[in-house]
Amino acid sequence: MKADDGAAGPRVRVLAPAKLNLGLRVLRRRADGYHELASVFVPLDLADVIDLEISSAAQSEVTLALAGEVAGVPADASNLALRAASEFLAAAGLARAVHLRVTKRIPVAAGLGGGSSDAGAVLRVLAARFPAALSPPALAQLALRLGADVPYFLAPHPARVGGIGERSEPLAGLPALACVLVNPGVPLSTASVFAAFDARPIPARQALDPELGLDLANDLEPAAERLCPAIAPLREQLRALGARAIGLSGSGPTLFGIFQDAAAASGALDRASFPPPIWARVAVAPKAG
Questions:
Q1: What is the model's pTM?
Q2: Owning domain of residue 132
């Protein structure tokens, strides 16, 4: 379907939230190499900021500027936000110039979905600007081609997620969650963690949080800890700080400790000792439903 030639508008700013995995089970490895998963995703108030400027052009052009915590963030054609804009324009048959400015707040290769969220945010803006350009199924397929987590970020909300990440079912009744996020300051690639899991698949034991009613165990945690031993002592620090439940988000290495409320999380972080390169902050996930 070809989009109309609607007039370009002013700069648009959109937030690209990080996500937490509240538990992650690896169900099977498919013949194509992808892994089918079962998880609960919740968005956080930790977010990248994306500014988009869209203007008419003789042919499509997408440019990218980076700001904020940019270490390790690709600035070339492999950047997911840039790819999302380029592939949307191509699929829609649109000739537009799109300039992206991405201010990074989410650490790279941290299990928080930063790159996928950036791509999803760009697709959300372009789909809203050009509503006749792509049908919802076509947009979802484009998102999935960009990455397994990108479809979730087309409408980030608390959800049960399945398949390779493309199936999302809204989850109601989940309370707001106040967390301390702790990252050892070492990037950990998803591909490496899955490869380590495949080489030695040790499913995590059930770790039921009685207040949430969710299994917070992450089957990738043993593999992630083998690749990044710094995860284990950080888990013990969160436990000593009084976290009521602790989990690993995605393929790691970011851990989250859940506290009673934001004040308790902030107090715990104030008492903590997380020297560089460890990265730590309080983040909140909204109430579901």
A1: 0.94
A2: 12-168
